[in-house]
Amino acid sequence: MSNTKLRVLPLGGLGEIGKNMTVVEYDGSIVVVDTGLRFPTAEQVGIDLVLPDFTYLRERADDIEGIVITHGHEDHLGALPWILRELGTDIPVFGGPLTMAMARSKLDEHRLKETDLTDVTPGEKLELGPFDIELVHMTHSIPDMMAVALTTDLGTMLITGDYKFDQTPVDGKPADVTRLAEMGREGLLLLCGDSTNADRPGFSPSESVAGPGLEAVFGRCKGRIVVTCFASNIHRVQQVIDAAKIHKRKVVLVGRSMRKNINIGRMLGHIEVPDGMLVQPREARDFPDEKLIIVSTGSQGEPLSALRRMAYKDHPQVELHQGDTVVFAATPIPGNERAVNDTIDRLYHIGCDVITAKDAPIHASGHGYQEEIKLMLNLTQPKYVMPFHGDHKRIHLHAELAEAVGVKPENIFKGENGLPLEIDEKGARFGKPERAGMIYVDGVDIGDPTDVALRDRRMLSADGIFVVVATISEQDGSSVADPEIIFRGVPYSQDAEKLLGDIRESVNHSLERAAKDEIREIDLLQQLLHDDLAKFVYERLRRRPMVLPVVVEV
Amino acid sequence: MSNTKLRVLPLGGLGEIGKNMTVVEYDGSIVVVDTGLRFPTAEQVGIDLVLPDFTYLRERADDIEGIVITHGHEDHLGALPWILRELGTDIPVFGGPLTMAMARSKLDEHRLKETDLTDVTPGEKLELGPFDIELVHMTHSIPDMMAVALTTDLGTMLITGDYKFDQTPVDGKPADVTRLAEMGREGLLLLCGDSTNADRPGFSPSESVAGPGLEAVFGRCKGRIVVTCFASNIHRVQQVIDAAKIHKRKVVLVGRSMRKNINIGRMLGHIEVPDGMLVQPREARDFPDEKLIIVSTGSQGEPLSALRRMAYKDHPQVELHQGDTVVFAATPIPGNERAVNDTIDRLYHIGCDVITAKDAPIHASGHGYQEEIKLMLNLTQPKYVMPFHGDHKRIHLHAELAEAVGVKPENIFKGENGLPLEIDEKGARFGKPERAGMIYVDGVDIGDPTDVALRDRRMLSADGIFVVVATISEQDGSSVADPEIIFRGVPYSQDAEKLLGDIRESVNHSLERAAKDEIREIDLLQQLLHDDLAKFVYERLRRRPMVLPVVVEV
Q: Are A305 and A297 in contact (CB under 8 A)?
């Protein structure tokens, strides 16, 4: 067995923030840790979601012993429905009870009923093929976050998932530093740790600071209060509810995911709501403003979220007005700044007061800062380190932290998606790159990013489209009807009739030339029309719209 | 004359950051202060630039006595070519010498030669119709920034433009507080002040702090240095050059606007470059890395900028490598965060070290903070206050600052684009809203945002397009060729042949139905094909692509 290699292949989450997914291989068997997704950027026009390219697993589906999910956030869990649908719904999935409840709800929405989800509690041992697996309780911005330890004959590796060392978590259950220290004493082979906050010095504030912060802010509010935060941040919502109780206000939950997550959280005992505290949105009007706190989705300025709709005076149940205070108990994820600022500005325009995490201590990050990353390294004393969950900058900074606590530089591996780290008894090194990247969810289906449809949409969105229809005789190729020219989305300010006339003339010229040169094959004729028209349009409009020639033979 | 109203009509810059433009009217005459533009957001697909809607001025072009530009930044100057082109190149334009030089360069690029630009120096008096105008020297992140005082029989109003009270500016010329204080003593009627940093407490740091900051950073760099900042921030570039001199490095200017602005700045004496200091980009290879500083455009991650191209290993002259340090002497403008972060991450991937304004004091904002806004209010002692240059949030905060220094709440006007403030001897109040908003620059032409082309492009970019061509007989309306179906940008994963076959069948059905119902008019037939196909496609793909039916009669 000493020749067997441990392979750690990240399919997502390295060189980027989001869509975390890792393949761990040993002796022909595979365990997948996390199946996350990302949200598209503005350039990814018409795309709904971005998933890790899991082509590598398609041929190896039979070798997958199981999928382990660290926690219920979209960037660790979100791709699960597509992966099970494509690779087989019989692949067993493991995770904490809240994580599995959120997974089940997600799979239900995708009508994937016959799946195999198993709740795992911290400390419980799992055997998956050659892997002994143990989940270690950690703290994060969602309950039930667990690091994954995978043990083979070569030793133990730990994938931390997202974590912070919250010493005073809201549920009173700090990260299991004892177990981490034990692993360190036994000698950890490899640590794959969260790099998200590798650029922040110091130690992250505890989630518990948000409670008194919210309570103080609520105390200053005269009218109605709207609090927005991530719907999965169940402990944050708990603290809003606790503060509401102190100020004798009722709580209204608004937004589908907020209601869903708080329901799941209540069922599993992660959140306690006093009887009679919750009010239905449609009953909220029966209460005076100063007796209400609305807890809403939309902290990221998402277009269809409840808060965004309130800000644009388009929410069916909540109409904001002067005197309301909107509290952002979340910070914008990079890329969402503009959407969040837009929402805030609409709220000011309505006359609301707005409180953000810059104004009061009402938010704490779920990811450990530099001192916590160092603490993790010192606790687990890994031989090898491969920073996870970060763009190249954060991976670089995490590597510097590892060096600072004494990990040998040659044992630190700054990886990339698709680049497997291979470890055997002789040492560790990067192997041959495997296919990795993105696949897009476009409606209900998934596709390649090199997808023609997306490329076409980018082109269409830039300069629009010209369609030219030429009708020619089957006998001699002569034009039997005036060419039809239609354009959409093309910017122009010239006289449309004249422009169309000129284009028609240019098309007729092309057709005559084709007839003279005896170009009769439809493909060639279309190519010729395309090239001529594209040139003509560029010369006239200095634009490169898509040109679509259609030749009909009659 | 006592019945004559002063009207201050902002056409841009209120309720937004950017495209500042104000119309000031008195006794039938108009002076325009600033003609700025904005850059499009990601949702404004295919749009190049956003200008203020100046429809209001089209019918009043003859009443315009002149345009006064406060300084050379795009958000105050950039729309000038379009405005002169549309309203008349004979409208006189006034501003500081650097501002006018930048305007001239811009107008030249638009081939507007016969324009009337006049350099104005601070203190010089201008008479434009009923307005006595005086420019007041201020400090900002570009030299030659001047506030505009407009005096009529009713008193003096001041439009501050963008300013800070830099006590130690790089050129040794602080803002003319003496003149501002005089105006205050004489009694200012109305202050329209910059609100950009109304959310920042305290006093902004002086531009002079960036020099020692850059010098210290450069001292720690072993290899080549790339510094990026706004090309118009001539004093920042001066400080880079000064620090380069201390560290005995040559300076290479990269990027078209960087070279252009520094040229203009040198000609006008705003920047001093020692002889032999500048090296051409193509000569840079002759110097060792540790002897070079490259000053580059691209601090905002702009797609075609020099730095972005370097980061993507696509720059013709500069190839970055491990050991290079890239210094961002600018902070991202809201909305640019993702592009800047992308650029930074590519640089880390190459192996460069990256220093930003978070790491060292190498940047200072050009806009005064809260204490400076209060100082402006206290110096000028205005009767009425109308905050300018800010989204609703910042306008609201500026209004709070005005109240804090003792301006009566009823004399503070929180305005909006298109809402004129009217002042006469009886008092001040908002008048009837005028048309204001955006117009888009789409290539070389300008258009309305409700423009069909843009709406079409949004639709095309979301779901693509289906084109269906039906060829029917002129005699009896029967189909004489199989319908042609072409689609582009439509996301689908079904078998294309089968999908096309089914669609063709559906189109044939529609044609048969039309023939039976004797629908022969092309418009009606196209409408029917459109509705039937859109319905069919939505049922099959759950998408709403644009559907473009073409009926050809032969």
A: yes
Cα dihedral value B228, B230, B231, B234, nearest 10: -100
Domain chopping of chain B, boundaries? 6-202+365-447, 207-355, 451-553
C-alpha span between A422 and A23 (Å, rounded): 12
Q: Which CATH class is domain A207-355?
A: alpha beta
* ipTM above threshold 0.85: no
CB A198 within 8 A of CB A401: yes
CATH homologous superfamily for the domain B6-202+365-447: Ribonuclease Z/Hydroxyacylglutathione hydrolase-like (3.60.15.10)
pTM (2 d.p.): 0.84
The token pair that represents B163 in the structure block: 């300013």
Chain B residues 281-340 with a CB less than 8 Å from chain A: 334-335, 337-338
Average of pLDDT values for A456-469? 84
Task: Pull the structure tokens for residue B491.
Answer: 């996301």
Q: Chain A: give the shortest CA distance to residue B42, in Å.
A: 6
Nearest CA to B266 out of B241, B293, B245 is that of B241
Chain B: give the shortest CA distance to residue A50, in Å. 14
- Which tokens hold the place of B78? 């950039």
Please write the tens of the pLDDT for every residue from A92-101: 999 999 999 9
pLDDT tens digit sequence for B231-250: 999 999 999 999 999 999 99
Rounded to whole angstroms, how far apart are CA atoms A252 and A230? 15
CB contacts < 8 A, A to B, total 177
The yes-or-no verdict on residue A448 having pLDDT over 70 is no
> What does the pLDDT average to over A388-396?
97
Q: Min CA distance, B446 vs chain A (Å)?
A: 8
Of A346, A393, A471, the CB nearest to B345: A393
Rounded to whole angstroms, how far apart are CA atoms A183 and A123?
A: 12
CB contacts of B459 in chain A (<8 Å) are 489
Report, as residue numbers or ranges, the catalytic residues of B.
194, 367
User: How close A93 comes to chain B (CA, Å)?
Assistant: 27
- Catalytic residue numbers of A? 194, 367
- Distance, in Å, from the CA atom of A88 to the CA atom of A109, rounded to the nearest integer, reads 17
Task: Pick the residue from chain B with its C-alpha nearest to A359.
Answer: B199
Give the list of residues 6+ apart from residue B12 with CB closer than 8 angstroms, or none.
B18, B19, B20, B21, B36, B38, B52, B417, B436
Which A residues, 407 through 466, put their C-beta within 8 Å of a C-beta on chain B? Answer: 442-447, 451, 453-454, 456-465
User: Which of the 8 DSSP states describes residue B140?
Assistant: -
Q: Which residue has the tokens 């998934």?
A: A446
**Protein fold of B451-553:** Ubiquitin-like (UB roll) (3.10.20)
pLDDT for residue A2: 47
Chain A CB contacts of B554 under 8 Å are 471, 480-481, 554
Is B467 touching A (CB cutoff 8 A)? yes
pLDDT above 50 for B2: no
Sheet (strand A479-488) strand order? A479-488, A465-472, A546-553
B392 three-class SS: helix
Give me the helices (H) in B148-232, please.
177-186, 210-220
What average pLDDT does the structure give for chain A? Answer: 92
Is A338–B341 a contact, with Cβ atoms under 8 angstroms apart?
no
Q: Which two tokens stand for residue A251?
A: 């709580």
HSE value, Cβ hemisphere, 13 Å, CA-based, for B342: 18
Mutate to test the interface with B, among A460, A475, A493, A550 (most CBs of B within 10 A): A460
Torsion, Cα of B362, B367, B369, B371 (10° steps) = 120
Q: Is the pLDDT of residue B450 over 60?
A: no
Does residue A35 contact residue A79 with C-beta atoms inside 8 Å?
Answer: yes
pLDDT single digits (tens) B408-429: 999 999 999 999 999 999 999 9
- Say whether residue B201 is in contact with chain A using an 8 A CB cutoff: no
How confident is the model at residue A516, as a pLDDT? 85
